[in-house]
Amino acid sequence: MTWKTSDQFVYVVGEHTPKGTWDYFKKIGKKPSSLFSLDEIATEVKRINQELKDLSERIDRCTKPLDSGTEIPAEHKNKQTLIDSLCFEDQSLRIIAVWGIGGVGKSTLVNSVYKTEAFRFDCHVWVSISQSYKLENIWEYMLKVLGKDKLELAPEKMNSADLRVELIKILDKKRYLIILDDVWTADALFRLREVLVDNGLGSRVIVTTRMEEAASVAAKGYKIKVEPLCDHDAWLLFVERHFRKLKIISALQIYTSAVTT
């Protein structure tokens, strides 16, 4: 549409002298077809804006984005499975593994459930593990979050044994939810389990990992493998999270207005 708007512009230079002024009017008189009245320009701008609106509507029909907040089928299924695994009918401590290749959306899935379901537990904490974890640092962080101002001694001043004792003391009497994000080895889980008390209150530990070995720590029925999206679902997700947020018409109208004024 650039070529349709470019012929609406006339650039006339007149010197600030009587001669320049006379030349200015002569040029206007010789080229009346190059000039448009304000009404004609306004009409042309309206036409262009309508074309932009029609174009945006065609894009919207072609992409068919999901309604805001709508989940694709695979994502919804995994989320519901994870929520169901938090059910308190099973009062034993359960470790739930959410696993799959890197970047497939494991942490995003768990976080979406954590935000809506954590309030059902007496206490909860999200801990990032990574490959270079230090057990004492993880316990210290957990104690800071779960113990808050109830501790007589600050966690950073405790040794490993004290951290372990205090954590067990806190978790023993509460239904807790702990997220262990980005676990790389089964050994890391075995070490962390020292403080994960099975108090018969329906506590849950959710582990995200890309390693099947680490996921094997979870019992049968408590493993959720997150698969890469198929092309169709990936496209729907892309459209939902990007195109729907663009204000195409408004942006182009502002641009057109700036060019034609």
From TrEMBL:
<feature type="domain" description="NB-ARC">
    <location>
        <begin position="78"/>
        <end position="244"/>
    </location>
</feature>
<dbReference type="GO" id="GO:0006952">
    <property type="term" value="P:defense response"/>
</dbReference>
<protein>
    <recommendedName>
        <fullName>NB-ARC domain-containing protein</fullName>
    </recommendedName>
</protein>
<keyword id="KW-0611">Plant defense</keyword>
<dbReference type="InterPro" id="IPR027417">
    <property type="entry name" value="P-loop_NTPase"/>
</dbReference>
<dbReference type="InterPro" id="IPR002182">
    <property type="entry name" value="NB-ARC"/>
</dbReference>
<dbReference type="Pfam" id="PF00931">
    <property type="entry name" value="NB-ARC"/>
</dbReference>
<dbReference type="GO" id="GO:0043531">
    <property type="term" value="F:ADP binding"/>
</dbReference>
